[in-house]
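Record type: ASSEMBLY
Status: queued
Input:
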Amino acid sequence: MSATLAADEAIARRRREGQQVISMASGEIGLPVHPELRDRLAHAADRASYGPVAGSLALRTAAAGYWRRRGLDTDPDLVVCGPGSKPLLYALVLAVGGDVVIPTPSWVSYAAHARLAGVRPLSVPIAAGQGGVPDPDLLRETVTAARAAGHDPRSVVVTLPDNPTGTVASPETVRRLGEAARDLDLVIISDEIYCDLVFDPATPAVSPAVFAPERTVVTTGLTKNLAVGGWRLGVARLPEGEAGRALHDRLVGIASQIWSSPVAPVQEAAAYAFGEPPEIVERVAQSRRLHGSVARAMAERFTAAGAILTPVVATCYLYPDFGPLRTHLVRAHGVYNGAELARFLVERHGVGVIAASAFGEPLAALRVRAATSRLYGDTDEERTTALTAADPTALPWIRSSLDRVGEVLADLAGPAFAAPPAASGPAADAA
Amino acid sequence: MSATLAADEAIARRRREGQQVISMASGEIGLPVHPELRDRLAHAADRASYGPVAGSLALRTAAAGYWRRRGLDTDPDLVVCGPGSKPLLYALVLAVGGDVVIPTPSWVSYAAHARLAGVRPLSVPIAAGQGGVPDPDLLRETVTAARAAGHDPRSVVVTLPDNPTGTVASPETVRRLGEAARDLDLVIISDEIYCDLVFDPATPAVSPAVFAPERTVVTTGLTKNLAVGGWRLGVARLPEGEAGRALHDRLVGIASQIWSSPVAPVQEAAAYAFGEPPEIVERVAQSRRLHGSVARAMAERFTAAGAILTPVVATCYLYPDFGPLRTHLVRAHGVYNGAELARFLVERHGVGVIAASAFGEPLAALRVRAATSRLYGDTDEERTTALTAADPTALPWIRSSLDRVGEVLADLAGPAFAAPPAASGPAADAA
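Status: finished
Output:
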């Protein structure tokens, strides 16, 4: 069972039982559907044919335009749409075949996909601050050793920007990844679903498709940008060239046997969204600002409690390391690893987070992932207010979550870190 | 690539190129969405959360009621919903593990699912007229021999009513299947998506869940009943008992990693449909009558041309055997197998059908599957008229397809079978 979805269901149960909870476990985006997007789906409710396995030409063309505006020229005939980027990522593992290199830490489903596909997930650590991309030197070592041992790695999965660390690997790291992948003849599967959620637009994530266009598959979807995870719509961009076209055909064949086609009415709405009309661009910008503001304010609470945190520059995820508090946590709370820490936070305080071990890290790691994307309000009215607020962290319902987490972390950390968190506000947010 | 979806796309291409085509390749149901069902989806367009992996409680409860009304008492906690019954069937193969017995002939995706899951599909022929269920005696022989050879069959897939033969295995065959599965300790995966499309309601298909409740998983969906294939919504009913619950949990775990959850707005519409309000029951009854009328009239054209056809009693599929015309087909047209026959029909006459080899039959078999579900009209107005017509075969657009196929088959069969097809009408339809 996906750790994030399982944690999500556990938190929902607690809430139904009347407990006060702060849900930072799953990264589901708690924001309303943009009214225009909702209307597109409603107007397409009479569309009920399968249509092409790879998705309608209108949707594939819109997705190609989306990538073209980001510097990646794209042939609509090399775009494959599916019911979420998750099934596309799984089908890509099947289509490429062979073992898969995944970064540590990384999203919970990559390793699960490899296991379901009957291949071996090979873990390669990230370099510090370079979340989502296996350290290119270690990638070379690991693949070479695996091949010497008779294994058959054929692909490497990367996440740009990264879940769970909220960081973005530098262009130089991505360039070196591309070089290593070319030398090792690996397909790069680049999960770029957080592409538009880099807080500072001046420093975007750079896709490996820039450096290794002949071997990079890019995936994205509507889930994170537009808060429609429940609509299940993802898109994949296959490489030009003979190998890319062969991979495209295998992917479409697998799609035809596992899911047939993306949901027809959703395709219509998605084609509109990938066309990026001004109201959609503005909505994504609002979400980005909201994530940035709240994630950074929340990061301060963790830092104030003594956790180490690489500055969060994208997504809605924090990945605090409580290693410096290890002795205290064991003595005061009997908490000796990330899973114990997550259990302590949810059972004692109703604060849901995910242990680092779910992301492939060692059991002993005292790290957790906290997502801020559920803290924006309990009603659509609150959430809409949050989207347009100059300082979302000053809104009472967001402020109270921040304060509550600050208190919980103060309790966790004990007297040594009992100081109140630093004041947050526009000035602090810009830090 | 799924043979039916591939054929579908090829026919659509020909149509776009301005060719006159008669599409009997895919079994997609060419009928409009019921307005009430469409409105439910439209009204749910603001639902965008994932919700539970297995589907909402409302949908699972509605599906449980659907099965309860058909004599299968069902716990909503043992219902798992997914984006189509196709992904559920695939995930079940992964969840059960081990090799899979499939009937010959059978739907194109069962064997593909086994191959994608990295297990062995074991083919067992059906007994004459007992489509969808492997002959129980041959099932015993095959599984025993496979185990002796070191293989590990753990499940058997059945289709009730059957695609591609349009027949329904008798309760006695199903009882013997259940007995064999129990003796062999096999899980039965029973695809019952055509359950409500048995032409004579007095002789319904009987589920193996009646005879072997502890080991039978039943799947169905909205695609065939309500012509919303593009909405991708299927449901699975897991068995009571410890093994059933363990299988349920594995299935949900796999679902969480491959597709997350069924599409949220579609779940709302599906809960309404599985609740079976009178207007939905009536719509399904109309579809059933329409399929019965047109499929039987089309069957007469094939029989008149000299093909052998087991009487079609359910679905919208005919499975004619042109074996008696083999010598003529080779001499007159260079057609020596099912694939050549399908190619001849589409290239010379624009009539799309699927060769028996796509359903696991030997290449040499001179059988094809023809679906009538696309012949009900080119516009929603025509299709709605067809749904309520006392004699749909008398409607000009349906009559012209029947006549055209009759002419094509007369050309195929040559002078020996050039007699005009028998008159069809209410009397013939009731046969």
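Annotation: Chain A touches chain B through 56 residues (CB under 8 Å).
Annotation: The first strand of chain A starts at residue 22 and ends at 23.
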